Amino acid sequence: MKLNEIQDRTLATRKLLHTTVFAQCFSPCGRYIAAANNYGNIAIFSLSAVLSPEATDDSFKPIYTFVASEEGAIFCLASTDILLISAGAGNIHAWKWADILNKAPKQVWAWAVPKKNQFTIPEVNSIVVDQQEESSSRLFAGCGDNDVHVWDMEAGQQLVSLSGHEDYIHCVATKNKGRECVSASEDGTIRIWDSRTEGEAVHIIEPYKQEICARPEFGKWLGCVAMDPSEDWLVCGGGPQLSLWHLRSINPTTTFDTPGATQKHVMFYEDAMISAGSKPLVHHWYINGDLKSEVPCTPTSVFNVSINTNSDTHKVLCVAGNSAKIDVCTNFGYRASSLIFTQD
């Protein structure tokens, strides 16, 4: 074997060992999953191949990998019926799913986050697309400049910047058909905004000031937030205990105990909740705070849990974090297999 080949293999091995998968997203047809890593790459996996009884070792590797960011890590992905959207270091990029699945991705557009000074380009930590009307949708981006920036996706126009957080934003969600935005920040606050105006936040929630939520040993930062389908309830967590808030009274009603662990991802699913964070576990919760199940996973720290709701025949729960392996759970109570984010 030539020296160059040995060096290339050594580099590939090192990259694999240091890979972190920050985000994942299912294709509109539900037959594929896209995953994004700390090197700015997006890998596409075939769920049909993974779930096939004839699956081989190659079935769990990407069918295609491409560089989606020259600037660095990709922290978040979002999807529409047509586009896959990626963001992290640098600009927000959009790609057509049709081109990606044909292994010929072409950038449809790239939007720059407004810069507060000429030297710093804010990273994007969280994005969400919210359909406004049949022909209108908005993109919300929670950024490292402490602001949420909102774009009209059809016009490609930046509409407003929601300012008020005192530290960078980890997570954003929407409510009221996108007319309101919810953001979770390193400053320890959840802010609820009227996304149509650049005014101050309508409500500010501070879990670290509540006795049932506070965990001073972990700090006040908030890493995740989600709305329930009725939009009457909000769940958030991070340094403070994962907690459920009633939005009409703006009070915490329930906490979810994760001793020694901080939560970086949370979601409502059917009549339960799912969370994960700084331990190699995915927690399934009853809404009353009782633990339904605790599922071990490969990443020692989890950044994203996603459920494929786009295809009944390919319905899986996938877990991504500080590992090149992405766990696939066909039955949500255990890991059935793992994808592996190899580099081309």
Q: How is the biggest beta sheet arranged?
A: 4 strands, antiparallel
- Overall pLDDT level: 93
What is the 3D shape?
A: globular
Q: Give me the side-by-side strand order of the main sheet.
A: 1-2-3-4
CA-based gyration radius: 20 Å
CATH A-level architecture of the domain at 112-205: Beta Barrel
Percent helix, as a range, is under 10%
Number of helices: 3
Stretches where pLDDT is under 50 for at least 5 consecutive residues are none
Beta strands, count? 28
CATH topology of the domain at 112-205: Thrombin, subunit H
- In CATH, what is the class of the domain at 112-205? Mainly Beta
Structural class, by secondary structure, is: mainly beta
Strand portion: over 45%
- The first-to-last residue Cα distance is 19 Å
Can you offer a commentary on this structure?
- The protein has 344 residues and is mostly beta strands.
- It has a domain at 112-205: Thrombin, subunit H, CATH 2.40.10.
- It is 7% helix and 47% strand.
- It has helices at residues 3-17, 47-51, 97-101; strands spanning 21-26, 32-37, 41-46, 64-67, 74-79, 83-88, 92-96, 107-111, 124-133, 136-143, 148-152, 157-162, 169-175, 180-185, 190-194, 203-205, 222-227, 233-238, 242-246, 251-256, 263-269, 272-277, 281-286, 291-296, 302-307, 317-321, 325-329, 337-340.
- The strands form seven sheets. A four-stranded antiparallel β-sheet has the order 1-2-3-4.
- β14 (180-185) and β15 (190-194) form a beta hairpin.
- The relative contact order is 0.13.
- The mean pLDDT is 93.
